[in-house]
Specification:
The complex is a heterodimer of chains A (317) and B (447). Chain A is mostly helical. Chain A contains 11 helices and 4 strands, in the order αααααββββαααααα. In chain A, the strands form 2 sheets. In chain A, strands 1-2 form a two-stranded antiparallel sheet. A two-stranded antiparallel ribbon of chain A has the order 3-4. The longest helix of chain A has 33 residues. The radius of gyration of chain A is 20 Å and the shape is globular. In chain B, the strands form 3 sheets. Chain B has a 7-stranded mixed sheet, with helices on both faces. In chain B, helix 5 links the parallel strand 3 and strand 4. The radius of gyration of chain B is 22 Å and the shape is globular. Classes of the chains: A mainly alpha (317), B alpha/beta (447). Chains A and B meet through helix 1, strand 4, helix 9 and helix 10 of A and helix 3, strand 7, helix 8, helix 9 and helix 11 of B. Chain A: Pfam families: BPD_transp_2. Chain A: Its main location: membrane. Chain A: Belongs to the binding-protein-dependent transport system permease family. LivHM subfamily.
Chain lengths: 317, 447
């Protein structure tokens, strides 16, 4: 493979993987930064998103499922995934609200070890519940084959890269659209201002008379919605099984915020992309070293820049 | 059977000398054992006390191969039910009568290997020490099988392999206390290479991805050997991928589309369920043929839209028309409402094999059970005539070459078509060749 096309291919694969890391990282980082709450159930939210996506995808598939049983057999396009794009983040948002109220809030003032234990326990409960309710089966990825009549199951030819799965190109676009909107919401809105201020000094925000508890709920729910959305994106390219929350989401999410810096949305985006490209580059060149180099890179970040790329030294102290 | 006669006479000799000599010297503990089975010294979990005998089913209930584990358990539980109450193959296999084993009711304990050798070893250790399992069985993942069979050799408890396809299991890592019904990667290469050469032609270039652990490594080596020697193909490159990889896109991006004629995906379980659809998604099937040397149902189900026409091998398939296969399919379907996978068949077979050997030996004393299994010939396991070879404990049996069915052809049970049943006469290797050349079985425990 030519060097230019190899680099292009690494970047594109890295972008796709990095987008999922960034989505996870943003969710985790705003919860950690704002509330100083370590959420080990973040992977479980990814899992919830993936399975909700699966159910929505199946139930709205027009050849069978709920809509079919109601007599709706044509919508002009393959509606399952589009419906999931709306329903999954909304459901994740709802789960986040409940989780903040009933799991996180009682533990805000408790030691971090308690937070870790309760959220890890919650992650296990979610995983086991899915195993018991839906089963431990593996499900096929839920990518649609057409969108608005356009075939997206075939690869398309890109300059330099060559053939690339067209669905992956689309999800890169969708993921970065959501990342961009989240970034704007946090950088350009009053809500975002409160979130940002909260990540720096929540006491001061409270003293200014801002009802930060309501913001806490919204931040937590937004983080959960992003994790669920990442799960939906992941489920569209990989098979689903109950362990993906731990394996594919939780660790990458933490690595992302270590690299990007806790509490920084910009950092989560940068961290996700950096990690995505590292994994992609190593896999494509020296695959056996991929994991070692990944963790080595994170370790070096911790040693030489513990606050991460965009983090502030105060956060987490 | 002639085999049983010789085994019986050997056992009689041992009884006579053992009662007077070995038992007296090696310890009297065994002599206090119950169940009228006390002519041998205590060894491992022998003698079996009480009215029940415990089998340990150590399967992956989590991790990459967890669905295989669920199917294995279904096979194991069916075997226990039939051993205790009759039915299934019990009625057709010599020595088994459907009233337990050696007059004892069979009970079982289950463990989760988590598809991880260390966890599996700990789980098996618990079964041996706490539950007094007289036999442990399980797999999937050769890494797990090799770890557990090593432990079983140390503990003098029999291990009946389930899904394990690495050459090492009955090759360099073989042990006296383990037996394998499943075929191995070497035999996959022998069965697959001629079919592929005929189908795709000679002088092709192939590129391999393989799961980076015991199974994947021997699988890769066997494919390289037979595709090169038999099909006359050339390997471009062979790339390891970590077990449990979910996104193969970077590995697949690196496959040289211009050079490669065949892409060999040496993945299994969840890994294969990801790598194959992703290869198709990337359009690699437009530029080259894809081969999945070892099929399994999980992968075929998860990748159902992608397996059309793809070749591989399988341990067994419910579509085989012989009486044994069909009777197993019938009892399994009655219980679980669908056809069994090959994982269920191996689990069922290996459990019955142990039970029948104990019945023939008339004791649970491990060395005697081992001697009954070594060289035993049998034909009721759905693959025609088979034998459990004494020199490496590898079953000598036929291998099925399969091809993925088209989407229109596929049903819940039928995902693959049987292309051919390669006779064992065309497979295998001598005791001093292939993986067996590296096998040293170790001790019986009564030397």
């Amino acid at each position: 493979m030519l060097l230019q096309s190899e680099i292009a291919s690494i970047l594109l694969n890295g972008l796709q993987q990095g987008a999922i890391y960034a989505l996870l990282g943003i969710g985790l980082t705003i919860i950690l930064g704002t509330m100083e709450f370590l959420n080990l159930a973040h992977g479980a939210l990814y899992l919830v998103g993936a399975y909700t996506g699966l159910i929505v995808f199946q139930e709205t598939a027009l050849s069978n499922g709920l809509l079919y049983s109601l007599g709706i057999t044509t919508m002009g396009f393959e509606g399952g995934f589009l419906a999931a794009l709306v329903i999954v983040p909304a459901f994740g948002f709802g789960v986040g609200l409940l989780m903040e109220r009933f799991v996180a809030e009682p533990f805000y003032d408790r030691p971090e070890t308690d937070q870790l234990l309760v959220t890890f326990g919650l992650a296990l409960i979610v995983e086991e519940t899915i195993k018991n309710v839906i089963g431990g089966n593996t499900f096929q990825s839920i990518a649609p084959s057409t969108i608005f009549g356009v075939n997206v199951s075939q690869p398309i030819s890109l300059p330099l890269v060559g053939l690339f799965p067209s669905w992956r190109l689309i999800i890169i676009g969708i993921a970065f659209l959501v990342i961009g909107l989240t970034y704007l919401a946090i950088e350009r809105t009053d809500f975002g201002l409160v979130v940002q201020a909260g990540t720096r000094d929540s006491e001061m925000v409270r003293l200014l008379g801002i009802k930060i508890n309501r913001s806490y709920s919204l931040v937590f729910a937004l983080g959960a919605a992003l994790a669920a959305f990442a799960g939906l994106i992941g489920a569209s390219i990989q098979t689903l099984s109950p362990q993906i929350g731990m394996d594919q989401a939780l660790i990458p999410a933490f690595l992302t915020i270590v690299v990007g810096g806790a509490g920084s949305v910009r950092g989560a985006i940068a961290g996700g992309l950096v990690l995505g490209v590292i994994v992609s580059a190593m896999t494509q060149t020296y695959s056996q070293w991929a994991q070692i180099v990944l963790y080595l890179f994170v370790a070096l970040m911790l040693i030489f820049r513990p606050q991460g790329l965009f983090g502030t030294a105060e956060v987490g102290e | 059977m002639a085999r049983e006669t010789t085994a019986l006479s050997r056992r009689d000799v041992l009884k006579a000398s053992g009662a007077a000599g070995a038992a007296g010297l090696t310890g009297l503990a065994g002599c206090a054992g119950g169940g009228g089975d006390s002519e041998y010294p205590a060894l491992g979990n022998y003698p079996v006390e009480g009215d029940e005998v415990v089998f340990g089913f150590n399967v992956p209930q989590s991790g990459s191969y967890s669905q295989e584990g669920a199917d294995e358990l279904r096979g194991y539980n069916l075997a226990v039910e039939h051993l205790n109450n009759g039915g299934g193959w019990v009625d057709n296999w010599d020595g088994l009568s459907g009233d337990g084993v050696l007059g004892k009711t069979v009970t079982s304990v289950e463990g989760d290997t988590a598809t991880d050798p260390d966890t599996a070893r700990q789980s098996a250790q618990r079964m041996i020490n706490r539950d007094n399992a007289i036999m442990v069985t399980g797999g999937s993942s050769s890494g797990v099988a090799i770890a557990v069979q090593g432990l079983c050799q140390e503990e003098k408890v029999l291990f009946q392999c389930c899904i394990t396809h690495s050459n090492d299991t009955t090759g360099s890592e073989c042990v006296r206390y383990s037996f394998r019904e499943m075929f191995n990667a070497y035999m996959t290469g022998q069965a697959l290479a001629p079919v592929l050469a005929e189908e795709y032609g000679e002088d092709l270039n192939f590129y391999q991805l393989y799961a980076d652990y015991s199974w994947g490594q021997t699988q890769q080596a066997s494919m390289e050997q037979f595709f090169t020697d038999v099909a006359n193909w050339s390997q471009i490159e062979s790339v390891p991928t970590p077990l449990g990889t979910s996104d193969y896109s970077s590995y697949l991006s690196d496959v040289p589309r211009d050079e490669a004629d065949v892409l060999v995906l040496n993945h299994y379980g969840l890994d294969a369920a990801n790598s194959l659809p992703q290869a198709i998604e990337a359009g690699l099937d437009q530029d080259m043929e894809i081969v999945v040397p070892l099929y399994n149902r999980l992968m075929a189900e998860a990748a159902s839209g992608s397996i059309d026409g793809i070749f591989g091998t399988a341990d067994w398939n419910w579509q085989l028309e012989d009486d044994a296969s069909q009777s197993f399919v019938e009892v399994y379907r009655a219980e679980h409402d669908r056809a069994p996978s090959y994982g269920a068949r191996i689990a069922y077979t290996q459990t019955l094999q142990y039970a029948a050997a104990a019945e023939r030996a008339e004791t649970f004393y491990p060395p005697e059970v081992i001697r009954e299994l070594e060289g035993h010939e049998y034909s009721g396991a759905g693959l025609g005539s088979e034998s459990m070879r004494g020199c490496d404990h590898q079953a000598q049996r036929d291998v099925l070459v399969m091809q993925g069915a088209s989407e229109e052809e596929q049903t819940e049970d039928k995902l693959l078509n049987i292309v051919s049943q390669t006779s064992q006469d065309d497979l295998g290797y001598a005791c001093d060749a292939g993986p067996a050349a590296e096998c040293e079985l170790g001790e019986y425990g009564d030397e």
